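thought: fold this chain, then report.
action: predict
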Amino acid sequence: MAIAVDANQPEGRRLRGFIAEAPTPTARARAFLALLLVLVPPVFTAMMGTPVVPIIPAVAKHFGGGDAGAFAAQMMVTVPCIGVIIGGPVAGWLIERIGIRAVIIGSAVLMGLAGMAGAVVHDIVPFLFSRLLVGFGAAGGYTALLTLAGLLFQGRTLARVLGYQASVAAVVSMGSIMISGYIAEHVEWRVSYGLYALVLLFVPLALLGRWPAQPVSVQARAAGAGAFGRIWPILLIMIPIYAAAFMSVVQGSFMMTANGITKPTLQSTLISMATIMFTISSWNYGRLRSRLSGPMTFVVALLLLGGGIVLMGSLHPVWAMGLSCAMMGAGAGIATPYLSQQILERVTAEQRGRAVGFIAPAHYLGEFANPFIMHPLRMAIGIHAAFILFGAFIMLGALFAFRANRKPASADPESAPEPVAAA
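observation:
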């Protein structure tokens, strides 16, 4: 089943048009708030773990040091991912029953309070439970806001929005890590948990934002039940793609060490090239999508992503490590909004909440799958050959996407937005 949409995508409602169509200045201000919400869904998942990354050593010491402390610190980052995997489908189910606005508000309150609880919880079990709730809140907020994006925009405008979302998430990730590190060094490490209070800003934005009404009905719930049947091929594709997208972060330092690049500062600088290029490529995804068909966009993403992995496994110099990280970041920056767009455009309006609920779980399943894919390969054929083999597998996907591009384009299911009333 090829993951393709019509090459001649409709423009859809423009970003400025969404604000301009509001009848009064107050309504336009509320529409602007809704537009802000649409541009930041991945902030929920980005903020899930980044505020605590710089305080991992302090948390390990706080919980007694040694193996027990190290376990608590590592689980502090891992447990929220479990919450996302479980909470994403739950959030989609809730959207069908209580609506987008209620899920945004509830998720923001849950994530904000659970995140800040880390500063005052001293026993490991309630501490890890609070981290699990952070994951549930992140999944709910991300799912609801991405569903809202699909409700408001279609076609090329949706492509632009999804690209902007990925860029904003990358910037927020880098910024929250830097701010948390500064707080931990110059103030007190527990204060870093206070960054989760920023998530509570979504509450007034959701209360005041203006977007089309989404009635909760039995028909919508019944339609949502069929969402998985439409998107499961894309979800399966997402797992290896996201496993590849995390190669620079999860496996990059091992490869650099094997190549004699051992300075942590140099390694982090080279790996940061992936984040920089992810931000740039995702920001320009909408422009790329307006010039290329869906499959050809995916071809570019896979060639960059797989090619970067192959390059890292083939060449040893520092410049090759930097270039490979940049290629992987650029490929991931294109693939991330593209795959999200495929999910949004393959389902009906009633199914979007349920369908979007599977995106974040697929993302984190891919991250979890990375070491399970690479470790056996490294043990069997060595790290360099493992990189080349896995990268070649990703590049092989470009061939199938190219073949899909040669097939006649079908009619775009979202060629015209359904008329809806503003809430």
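thought: worth noting. The domain at 15-216 is CATH 1.20.1250.20 (Growth Hormone; Chain: A;).
final: tokens above.
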